[in-house]
Design brief:
The protein is 86% helix and 0% strand. The protein has eight helices and no strands. 30% of the residues are buried.
Length: 226
């Protein structure tokens, strides 16, 4: 038996049924990730205008401790990044900005967790289904080859082959069915991430503005004292 026949026999023995179960398992994982990400993004969202107004009043009063405490009460992405910058308020705006950039990278990693799976599945699920279809077609033609010597059974064999091919195409259909929600969820969550990170600019720029003003006042006071 050559290598081609060996591979063919292996595929015929395994069948295409496991591909369908495999795709079904992948779809369950997709659903679990989508539900988890949905609640995660919901928890990390906030009314940034209300939070900015509250924190802005505290920063204007130079009460940075109170501002950090207010931000710590929020689970939002914007609050976490702004709080990271305020931790370095005593070191100046430049240090605070670098701290917030580091916090953005950390938050982005948390926000994008699981999305690589959705993107990969969306791109490859149709190929997995196509693989199952190919296995089914190989089996159908194998049956046709075995029935060929019996001329009286040719029509019956042809019907059986067509039925087998129709069943094999179910794998491709299921692969596409699994891929479409994964791609849709991936694109939707990417937009949610972009929206969440965009709101961080509101608080980040607010923090930097107050720190810059504080530094300017301190420098001006020192210059007058000199």
């Amino acid at each position: 038996m050559n290598s081609v026949n060996a591979v063919k026999q292996l595929l015929l023995q395994s069948g295409a049924g496991w591909v369908l179960w495999f795709l079904a398992g992948l779809s369950v994982i997709t659903l679990a990730i989508c539900v988890e990400r949905w609640f995660f993004y919901l928890a990390r969202h906030c009314d940034v205008q209300v939070l900015a107004r509250s924190v802005g009043d505290q920063l204007a009063a130079r009460d940075f401790a109170a501002a950090i405490e207010t931000l710590a009460k929020s689970r939002s992405v914007a609050a976490a990044i702004a709080a990271a910058g305020l931790q370095f308020a005593e070191r100046g705006p430049a240090s605070a900005e670098r701290a917030m950039q580091s916090a953005v990278a950390l938050e982005r990693g948390r926000l994008e967790r699981g999305l690589a799976y959705l993107g990969t599945l969306g791109n490859n699920a149709p190929f997995i289904g196509l693989f199952g279809t190919v296995i089914g077609i190989i089996g159908a033609f194998e049956e046709l080859g075995r029935a060929a010597p019996a001329r009286g059974a040719a029509e019956l064999a042809s019907q059986a082959v067509m039925s087998s091919i129709a069943e094999a195409l179910v794998a491709t259909a299921l692969g596409i069915l699994v891929a479409l929600p994964a791609i849709a969820a991936y694109n939707y969550f990417q937009r949610r991430i972009a929206a969440l990170l965009l709101t961080t600019d509101v608080l980040s720029n607010l923090v930097l503005a107050h720190l810059a003003d504080r530094t300017a006042r301190a420098t001006g006071t020192d210059g007058m004292a000199g």
